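Thought: the user wants the 3D structure for the chain below. I'll pass the sequence to the structure tool as-is, report back what it returns, then summarize two notable features.
Action: structure_tool
Action Input:
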Amino acid sequence: MELLTTGQLARELGVSRGAVVKWAREGKIQPELSTPGGHHRWKLDDVRAQLRRLREDGGG
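Observation:
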């Protein structure tokens, strides 16, 4: 299981880092874990599934 930084996730999704931060702050996506320093780590497939569900529910 490879965990990505927020910047790496943004590159994989083709969006800005700021967009990922905003989605997380709004509760649209959830990180796999957060470090003690408050940095998020992400699983790409999980985030893609979260975004897909969000679109299907009309929230994206």
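Final Answer: Structure generated. Residues 44-56 form the longest helix (13 residues). The beta strands are 33-34, 40-41.
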